[in-house]
């Protein structure tokens, strides 16, 4: 695969995972809070901050009954209408420019998920470097065509999509001009259970579609995200908030600043630990050889005395002969005496 760059950062197995902090609606309709989230994400070491660009009118109809009412008893948003939820969660478009400006000043890459072609046009005016398609929109082929036509890298979450759905999505994006594609394994449940994450899908997605693959993670904590790195995830997206206690539409499955910092650190450690297939002594292990077990005289032995398990032991450190040679010495007489603590060597026989 050709190397993809998101902003100024290369993406792939040869690089530490790219970490995205998703603000979503956790600003609670306060620009001041939104800018503090940006600052906290930057201080935590995230590489990018993602917004969602829509209005309630572009998302749904202003109805509060029937199909437009959330009545699911297990939903975080039970009792809301879709329209009211999107009114509460959306990021005002006039906030995008100051949020992007603050991101860039702090070294974060700002980008967004558009939910309508009008949002794409707006984000293009802000020079967004790449785009994200949300799981709920991965079947919106006209939107995908519009985003792909910008020629910019495209990240697509795969929640709810079958293989045939994804084939259609990927083909549509590539035919419309997308050359740099990243798929994110995603479970569209809020919060999601680790048991429903099915991370083994990550390498399968890469093989099927020949692209970089990552994780859009809605589980609580960082365990699933760290595990995904071992399976080849090169991009990880997590929702982010200043404090879950502040509430907000996504707070229940969002990371706090200390947790985001841990995610950045631990996913990079996981990536570093993968290495390559390797057996035997590494350069760093040479100094530890002395702590292996070896054969030592364990009590003073007179010249001509027979060696036995009473005067030879397998112990640390490792300066004597290897333990596998013990049977060759037992029952043999020493040609000269040896004091306790003498490493066993061939010239003692």
UniProtKB/TrEMBL annotation:
One of its GO terms (molecular function) is N-acylneuraminate-9-phosphate synthase activity. PROSITE patterns: AFP_LIKE. GO terms for biological process: carbohydrate biosynthetic process. It comes from the Bacteria. Residues 294-349 form the AFP-like domain. SMART domains: SAF. Keywords: Transferase. SUPFAM superfamilies: AFP III-like domain, Aldolase. CDD domains: SAF_NeuB_like (cd11615). Its EC number is 2.5.1.97. The keyword Lipoprotein does not apply. NCBIfam families: PseI (TIGR03586). This is Pseudaminic acid synthase. The gene is pseI.
